[in-house]
Each structure stands twice: as structure tokens, then as C-alpha cells.
């Protein structure tokens, strides 16, 4: 007999892969929930938790970047997404990271 907590598919979404860009400002013309297979619009998932994602361009990452960590896993303000975007945009003081 099946466990009662399995009766209503309560855990069905655990098998689904995260599929949206969580950048503060998503730049992809197709929207947060769309991505391409490779290039600047490929969706990278956090290499630690896989619970957040970003398009490469939305976080200022190079096409050669294979790994990315969200701010929650890397520590707020130290995640590769935040620090690289900050350096690229020249906005480190506003992000609280000081000048590059």
C-alpha cells in the first residue's frame, strides 16, 4: 500500500529542474522562463543548490563560464553573479562592495 503523503502527489515537483532566471533584472527578450541551449542566454543553475538560475548575460558571465553560484550559497554580495556584474557595470559602490 502507498504511503498517505504520496496520495496527492505532494512531492511530484521534486523531480523537476529549476527553469527560470532569478537575476534581479532579467535581460532576455523571451523572458525569465525561456533559455537557449548555449551562449549568452543559456540558463546556468547554482552549482551548489541548483535552486536558482541565471542567464549568462543577466549576470555578466562569459560564454566560457561553466559554473555559477547564487548569492545565498556564496554569501550575499560575494556570489559570482553579483561581483562579476558589479565589476562589469562599474557599480560596486552602490552594490556595497566598494570600488573595484
Automatic annotation (TrEMBL):
Domain of life: Eukaryota
Protein name: PHF7 protein
Residue span(s) of domain PHF7/G2E3-like PHD zinc finger: 16-74
Originating species: Loxia curvirostra
One GO CC term, this protein: nucleus
Cross-referenced Gene3D superfamilies: Zinc/RING finger domain, C3HC4 (zinc finger)
